[in-house]
Amino acid sequence: MTDITEFLRDAAAFAGVTTDDILAKALHIEDGAIAPLVDGMDDTTRALVVRLDRELRIRNPGLHYVTRKMFIGYRREGTTSTPVGERSQIFASIIRSPSRLDVVLPVDPDRFGSIPNAKDLRGKGHHGVGDLRVSLYSVSDIESLWV
Question: Which one of 53, 77, 92, 106 is CB 3.0 to 4.6 Å from 62, fit for a cystine?
Fold first, then answer.
């Protein structure tokens, strides 16, 4: 038995749940973490956010959500001692909007500005963490982020 399997078994026994329940919680599968973000969105936008969230979780197991009034940030696992430290670890921000999906990324707009539907935000007031906003209108737009 591996250390991971043993840990999952022990954690599940302690909590009175299954190992699948432990994994689902750790991976944010159907835990409702993005419910506040998608509440009030139209069906198309909600479906796109759920798809993007899934893709981000697949590529970043153990990520954490950072909830703000105007956006939801995705932060890699780890601890920070200050809000500034937490902000610097956010690698994607989904802007709250009822009818469109905008993602702000902390990347160099000169290097990644050729992404379709991208806008350079340097020097402009905006919500989210980063200087490049990408508007996503379809599943293929989401898939193109990883090509």
Answer: 77
